[in-house]
TrEMBL record:
The modification N6-carboxylysine is found at K140. The keyword Metal-binding applies. Its cofactor is a divalent metal cation. Pfam families: PTE. InterPro entries: Metal_Hydrolase, Phosphotriesterase. Zn(2+) 2 binds at K140, H173, H202. PROSITE patterns: PHOSPHOTRIESTERASE_2. It comes from Actinacidiphila alni. One of its GO terms (molecular function) is hydrolase activity. This is Phosphotriesterase-related protein. The keyword Metal-binding applies. Keywords: Hydrolase, Metal-binding.
């Protein structure tokens, strides 16, 4: 039986509800120094605002080692009533000290991911630190700009191994929306991860209809996230891409997320648009363009399928 693995336990997919399929409550990377997401009160306020608009679930794609605050996620979920799916995995090498990456690879990266998915996530960013009881519900990996470096290839291989051991879905950061075909070729083509266990992120940043159709033909989920950022494709291109993919028969593979990565992008404590924007602005636009049934698929049915798995026991 399929289930969504939340920080409070496994959940039947039909109980997930309206979902922000890719976002961040906590995040700390060198490239965004001074704009860290590290305020629990601000995270709770953002979640509560999302919940007040009908939001019921958020997938936090922050992986290990970049300030995900795994220990605090269960309390946030209880306080707001919003289901949280957390991530294990690794981002690009530039976000980590080299000695940490060397240690993780030496100790066995796939085993590390499996432990976080089945036994519980580490409470902090220290691989020798305490482990909490909240389990990760997905694996987060990352490509590079128009390609894959050695670190990305090693992480993709470990993620594939962990998927085969547990059934966990894999979410992919694509730098500026690029290299999605390369990533799919490695995860699905080379390592045999089923396409419907792969969530390809940031495709709104590279609005190429031909590439989108090629990716959709594989059966993978296509995530359009981070709306209303001036340095990315604008919302009208995002909606245009979603409409084109729906017309091509791929409504059942589309996901939307806010991808809030800086404190200034929060709705309540920054300049926005934040998590509420998805439901306040984008959902009505999708309903006008595609109809209520399609909008329900993008916000409810599709995330439930994409984030659920037939979980296997700890090997």
């Amino acid at each position: 039986m399929r289930a969504v693995r939340t920080v409070l336990g496994d959940l039947a997919p039909d109980r997930l509800g309206v979902c922000d399929a890719h976002d961040h409550l906590f995040l700390r990377i060198p490239a965004l120094a001074g704009q860290e997401l590290d305020d629990p009160a601000a995270a709770e306020g953002e979640l509560a605002a999302f919940g007040a608009l009908g939001g019921a679930a958020v997938a936090q794609w922050t992986p290990f080692g970049i300030g995900r605050r795994a220990a605090g996620l269960p309390a946030l979920s209880r306080a707001t009533g919003v289901h949280l799916v957390a991530a294990t995995g690794l981002h690009q090498a530039a976000h980590y000290p080299p000695e940490l990456l060397e240690r993780l690879h030496k100790d066995g990266l796939a085993d590390f991911f499996v432990a976080e998915l089945t036994r519980g996530m580490l409470d902090g960013d220290d691989p020798d630190g305490p482990r909490g009881t909240a389990r990760a519900g997905m694996i987060k990996v990352a490509g590079m700009f128009h390609g894959l470096d050695g670190h990305a290839l090693r992480v993709l291989a470990a993620a594939a191994e962990a998927h085969h051991a547990t059934g966990a879905p894999i979410g992919v950061h694509h730098e500026m929306g690029t290299a999605a075909v390369d990533v799919l070729g490695v995860l699905h083509g080379e390592w045999g991860v089923p396409a419907d266990s792969i969530l390809l992120g940031h495709l709104n940043r590279f609005p190429d209809p031909g590439v989108h159709r090629e990716l959709a033909a594989s059966g993978a989920f296509l995530a359009f996230d981070g709306p209303s950022r001036a340095h990315h494709a604008t919302d009208w291109r995002t909606v245009e891409c979603l409409v084109a993919l729906a017309a091509a028969g791929h409504t059942g593979q589309l996901l939307l997320g806010g991808d809030t990565t800086t404190a200034g992008a929060r709705a309540l404590t920054g300049g926005g648009p934040g998590m509420p924007y998805l439901l306040r602005t984008l959902r009505p636009r999708l309903e006008r363009e595609l109809g209520g049934e399609a909008a329900e698929a993008v916000f409810v049915t599709n995330p439930a399928r994409a984030l659920s798995a037939r979980w296997r026991d700890d090997p």
